[in-house]
Amino acid sequence: MKDIPLKQQVPGDTTLPSDKEAIEVLSAHIPDDLSYAVEDFFRLPEQIAFQLSPNGKYIAFLAPYERRNNIHVRRLGEEQATRITAETERSIGGFFWASDDRIVFIKDSGGNENFQLFAVNKDGQNARDLTPFPEVTIQIIDELEDNEEELIIGLNKNNPQLFEPYRINIHTGALEQIGENTDPLQPIVQWITDHKGRLRAAIRMVGGVNEQLLYRASEEDDFKVVHTTNFRESLSPLFFDFQEPHLMYAASNLERDKMAIVRFDMKQAKEVGAPLFDHAEVDVSNLHYSRRRKVLTSVSYTTWKRQVHFFDEAAQERYNFWKSQLGDYEIMVVSTDKAEEKFLLRTVSDRSLGAYYFYNHTDRSLELIREVSPWIKEEDMAAMKPIQYQSRDGLTIHGYLTLPPGKTPTNLPVIINPHGGPWVRDSWGYNPEAQLLAGCGYAVLQVNFRGSTGYGRAFWEAGFKQWGRTMQDDISDGVHWLISEGIANADRVAIYGGSYGGYATLAGITFTPELYACAIDYVGVSNLFTFMNTIPPYWKPYLDMLYTMVGHPDEDAVEMRAASPVFHVDKIQAPLFVAQGANDPRVNIDESDQIVRQLRDRGIDVPYLVKYNEGHGFQNEENRFEFYRAMLGFLGKHL
User: Fold this and answer.
1) Going by CATH, does the domain composed of 46-144+166-175 fall within 2.120.10.30?
2) Rounded distance, CA 479 to CA 495, Å?
3) pLDDT surpasses 90 at 516
């Protein structure tokens, strides 16, 4: 299948072209005595993303073809697989079985995140582009597991800002619109179905910062407002109850700081009884259930690592058996057949991408399917250790420290690696960037600074309008903590991050230039004003929220200018390397162009890597190889 025509950036379209010669020079600085090469950490796995067909007879997975991930299918118990797609420009972004015979998948063009929906038979026949609409992206609303002909999807084809729900035939692409979303001032931002695939709830934005929960008893009824919250509070519907169709399971922090799992009565507009599960330290928002048995099975949540609490004895017994057989790994169910007798499991740890296993509950047999990266030995990798320290104003900041194996943890060169988002969090697990850097002798610090999610509403709100301020202070305090602990060499600290982490990188070398010896900005924001003006159209319903969380260009102009690194490049002392995808819809390429141009105008050389077939981060493996080789060379030269 070919991509729909799309105007993409090409060399010459950008103000500043990619600096090919400088990147090649940087790559020459990579040490030649490394145990593992860049390619070992960032190559495509030979097989990954395994999924069972609903009848449990076939397994589908992604595997490289022409250096791009494509879908392959094999019968369970057989080794021979059939490749059923042939994408060569871009890896498939995700897929699932829509029926026993047909698989649907999504992909975008050059990283623009305008995802299209495709379908193909399990033998590779009858391939079809189901959403051939230029400049349109899709949402999956309901896979309709009991319907082998249709899905429910959201499309923004009538208005780029608004997604409307459609039933789509997975064979013909025929569309039936089943709801309207026509008011940009009161947009519906989420559609919710019940277990029978009926559209019965929605979330609507009102006034830019308030969320209304809408409900109807049947599809013949009109939606009515059940509850209104300011976006600072959250009542996030998860799924309807199995027996009582007016009850909804939800994650809620109404009248509490941490998210808890509750039952919410849609008729009475209130929580029913005490929370089903909550935690004193972190948010809980993931609730799991058995579709066949119609019972709740467990909740999962993250403290320093993923935790699971079971409601269902059968699910817990099964999990305990897996643990006894597979050892001290995190174990996740990634797929099951419709009968819930056959399971695909994935293991992972901080030092391993783990493996996939097939479990047959009928005879309690457990079989290895495939290790994800067998060329990397777990014993060679570094442990990812949870840490915490106090911020200068008394908050407890959590994070992770990865130390280079075999080195005494004193006086080390360190990479500070703030996460993107910023409204996400770092979690314990395998991180190829951290492992690559640790293998080169660097310690890596990842910090869940204020504004990170998962630690409750107060911690999240403490980051509002604090880009470059207290959010950045939390990162700086992590540097000082490492130095005071004797772990870091104060003269050999670098900072590297992507997206918001790229912004934090630029803010770090701008506002605390004495802390960092060098920096790497990957698809990062440099100018808060232009960033807010170039967000994708389907982010527009959230613009007033962004004004509250980041800043208003008019009301907060002084503060936003003070927090935008591009206006303060005269303070930058450390060498900087910048990388950017030309088709990035989230952080426009102009963000990187601006900072590079400003520094070069001052006579400062800034190596600049632009990829014209990428967006918000590099997906194609040859681009990842080039970026990380240049990163290692840059660090080798300056750190």
Assistant:
1) yes
2) 10
3) yes
- Peptide bond preceding 422 in cis form (omega within 30 of 0): yes
Residue range 465-474, pLDDT digits in tens: 999 999 999 9
142: its two tokens: 């309901």
Give the number of other Cβ atoms within 10 Å of residue 115's Cβ.
18
Residues, the chain: 639
User: Fold for domain 20-39+377-638?
Assistant: Rossmann fold (3.40.50)
User: At residue 371, what are phi and psi to the nearest 5 degrees?
Assistant: -75, 145
Each domain of the chain, given as residue ranges in start order, spans 20-39+377-638, 46-144+166-175, 312-371
Q: What does each C-alpha distance from 469 to 47, 103, 416, 476 come to in angstroms?
A: 43, 47, 17, 10
* Alpha carbon 249 to its chain's center: 24
Confidence of residue 31 (pLDDT cuts 50, 70, 90): confident
302 touches 289 (CB < 8 A): no
Paired tokens of 312: 């269902």
- pLDDT at residue 15 greater than cutoff 90: no
- The fraction of the chain above a pLDDT of 70, given in percent, is 98
Taking each continuous run of H as one helix and of E as one strand, the counts in the chain are 12, 35
- Same fold across 20-39+377-638 and 46-144+166-175: no
